[in-house]
Amino acid sequence: MGLIAIFTIAPYALYRIYIGSFITAIADTVVVVSIIIAVIYAWRTDNAAKPGTYLAIICSAAATIAAINSGINSFFWIYPLVLFNFFMVSPARALIIMLVVLCSIAMYHTLNPNSVFANTYQMSEFLVTCLLSSLLTFIFAYRTQHQRERLEILAAHDPLTGVYNRRIMTEELYKAAKDSRSSRVYSLLVMDLDHFKNINDTLGHKAGDQILIDFVHIVQATMRENDLFFRHGGEEFALLLPDTDKQGLTIVADKLQKQVFSKLQSPAGSVSVSSGGAVLEENENWQDWLNRADAQLYLSKQAGRNRYHIAD
After folding, report:
1. Residue of 172, 235, 282, 284 marked active site
2. pLDDT tens digit string along 162-180?
3. Does the active-site annotation cover 236?
């Protein structure tokens, strides 16, 4: 979007300097410079939200100034501005910005009759067509945003339990391993419901699904706001605990062990959980970290289940 805007606006800025339309030329130059700054900022920070809002406001102001100063010919720029704003910011913000632009132009024409439009009918025709373009683009952008948000939810969450899925788990473990270099402590607790296959075989998958859902609710009721909970696969789950050392991890594992055994019930009786935990070591990659936690989970199962082990 930045490259397209620069190569389409810059020639007009030069042309308007040539014909002596300096106010519009300054507005075009400000737009070109702002686009360059915004693109560099977004590229370096990987954040397009702030520069997008900045560009939408700057380009809208420049287009309004150009339309008022250069007459009816410059009003053709308002229509690509509609699309540009809906690319740059959220649908609601883009619609508000366009309403401000149209109101500014209408107000200027009212205060200065025949300075911009030949008559009021011409102005009303422009306002109606531009407003219609904005509303149709708003509907399309809003539906697209809603569908994208739904797809993001489906791609990130387990459909049965609603917790994050394995793909998000690998991403978050990778981020944690990268972030730990700044001396932040992370712990990981891997949990597996005991004898879950027998539950499915004897009570049916519907009962098994309900036990998984109930287990998730129990864990979510005890975890902190910044903890992250994942379904690793099947009846295996993982809990990522930021700012938690070995002592804190042991406390969490012990609490969850007791909570699950006392609260998680199936038609055949109580359901227990085996756990394994590990604190992220310095310069350790996330795969080795997960493997160490899995190894502790395996030790818990070997020792008779319904217990936890924490790596040294």
Report:
1. 235
2. 999 999 999 999 999 988 6
3. no
